[in-house]
Predict the 3D structure of the following.
Amino acid sequence: MSVLVCFHAHPDDEVFTTGGVMRQASDAGHRVVVVTATDGALGEVPDGLLAEGETLAARRKRELEASTTALGAHRLVQLHYADSGMAGDPANRNPDAFCNADVDEAAQHLARVLTEESADVVTIYDPNGGYGHPDHVQVHHVGVRAAELAGVEHVYEAAVSRDHVKRLLALNPEWSPDSTPPDLDNFGLPDSQITTVVDVRESMSAKRRAMHAHATQIGDFGPFLQMPEEQLQAMFGQEWFRRRGGDAGLSETALPL
């Protein structure tokens, strides 16, 4: 049995880039651990969804528990840093926000989990955090340092293939869930930098259940949940990674579990 640890910034991030490999690893008999840095308390939430007196952080914790269960995780750890908000948000200046955390201090918390679990593989984000979110960028820095502290050899940067997204939108422009698509030139990584492409189509039902679990994030997941299965698989049936320290020309179809 190997141990996969997936480090994410907020509740719901676990679904998009690692949900499939988590489910596959669990189904293959490996141990799966999810670590989230923040409680996601600054996320948007539909009016009237929260119960009287219920906080968004408390609701998102329950959603995360349901999601990670659907994805086969055996353990969930929250580091309880404050959500930093999107880039440019005033919350970025909060001294307690994850984006302002001391990297070595935060890395020690994650390294403790990696050591406890004897982690074989840890996933983090690419240096731009996928799309520049301050918490995602910090996940990269903290994750790299934690792996060094814990001596984890196999570190994989989860990143959407920007070339794949460009190809899909060129063929099917109506698939874009937003009226203003992201700046794809600064989104994810190009195929030339991706070392590992995992086919996770067999795990799409679990990924869909995990999306449904995050009811407060329907603004993010709703457009995708309305897609036919064929379209959903085209968009999320692969998960992409860059292996840190991988040899030039490396081409993998699975994580080393």
Q: What stands out?
A: Helices lie at 13-27, 56-70, 103-117, 134-150, 162-171, 204-213, 218-225, 229-236. The mean pLDDT is 92. The radius of gyration is 17 Å. The first strand starts at residue 3 and ends at 8.
